[in-house]
Amino acid sequence: MSKLTFIDGNDVRLLRSGKEFFPELLGAIHAAQQEIYLETYIFTADPTANQVRDALKAAARRGVTVRVVIDWLGSGRAAAETLVADLCAAGVAARCFNPWFRRGLARTHRKILVADRAVALVGGLNIIDDLVSDDGWDLPLPYPRWDFAVSLRGPLVRVVFHEVDAQWRRTGKLNLRARFALMRDLHHEAKVARTRLSPAALLVRDNLRNRSTIQKAYLQALGQAKRRAILVTPYFAPGRKFRRALTAAASRGVQVTLVVGVGQFALQDAVAQSYYPGLLRQGVRIIEYHKTQLHAKVAIVDDDWATVGSSNFDALSLFLNHEANIVIQDAEFTAELETELNQGIADGSEVQEADFSSLPWTRKLWNGFAFLVYRNLMRIMTSGHYG
């Protein structure tokens, strides 16, 4: 259904929250014999994260080349710098991404591991225990954070490897000529890799080659949807194009269900809820998820299109930060993910149009104020790309 071209012959497995993700991550690190690349937004110091840290150190001690990129802001300035120093002292090559915003406002929000160019993990999970909140307060969660990743084996891993290797080199000292050469090589690699139709593709978003790649994939999938679409995000604040794609699909009879995380940030909740009346009037079904912290960034469209990754449906993910999603065209995988999403819908509460038509004026004013503040701030941060 999509015009994207895909790489053939991949084994793609769904990983549900930390219970399945961390054993897979640690297994890949322990089994690596040549090289490991890890890129993450948050890398904490809880017992789960410390297992990952110690496994990376052990890999370096046995002669594996280990390269780690940690976002300077996402992990906290002092904590990130301390962790990088600790890893480097143990023989791991580690760097902070964009310290002190020296290269603009963008953060790396990607969560990727590649081991021996044979296995890759891509998704939404940071290196943090999924029973602890990831907002800096370290609050206990009632249930494991709801999140997903995929494990990849096959030729798509080659493309993922080139992306993390490029990010590693970009965080070092590259002159302008070397940066242009790197861009050329990545473009060539994508053209070489995408030669046959198949079930999986890597989508990345950055501020050079791929400014709108992930959003365009969503717009295309929604534009071609025939029966249903389920989209899950912790933060909902997309631009007009994305919102219009949702309502246009609903208006032509597609059952569009939007599952949104709430309860973490009051301002974010108000911004998301400012969109509800317009979406509900156009037939979009909205579910608010309260059971635990929702961190999943996933979607399915019809019976053979699914995506799992790091990109939220907000301005930071769609227009500013570095992101990575895997798109899978496979009926079996889509059905497996649908089962998980239907359980999330059952665990949430459906928003009715009447709920918002009867809101007190103070609440409507707060939602409208939050929207204006967010929109203007994001327009500044994204150089006018958000609208």
Automatic annotation (TrEMBL):
It catalyses: 2 a 1,2-diacyl-sn-glycero-3-phospho-(1'-sn-glycerol) = a cardiolipin + glycerol. It comes from the Bacteria. Its EC number is 2.7.8.-. It comes from Undibacterium curvum. Residues 104-131, 290-317 form the PLD phosphodiesterase domain. InterPro entries: Cardiolipin_synth_ClsB, PLD-like_dom, PLipase_D/transphosphatidylase. The active site is at H109, K111, D116, H295, K297, D302. It is found in: Cell membrane. One of its GO terms (molecular function) is transferase activity. Belongs to the phospholipase D family. Cardiolipin synthase subfamily. ClsB sub-subfamily. The keyword Protease does not apply. Keywords: Cell membrane, Lipid biosynthesis, Lipid metabolism, Membrane, Phospholipid biosynthesis, Phospholipid metabolism, Transferase. PANTHER family: CARDIOLIPIN SYNTHASE, PHOSPHOLIPASE D. Catalyzes the phosphatidyl group transfer from one phosphatidylglycerol molecule to another to form cardiolipin (CL) (diphosphatidylglycerol) and glycerol. HAMAP family: Cardiolipin_synth_ClsB (MF_01917). Its main location: membrane. Transmembrane segments: none annotated. This is Cardiolipin synthase B. It is a peripheral membrane protein.
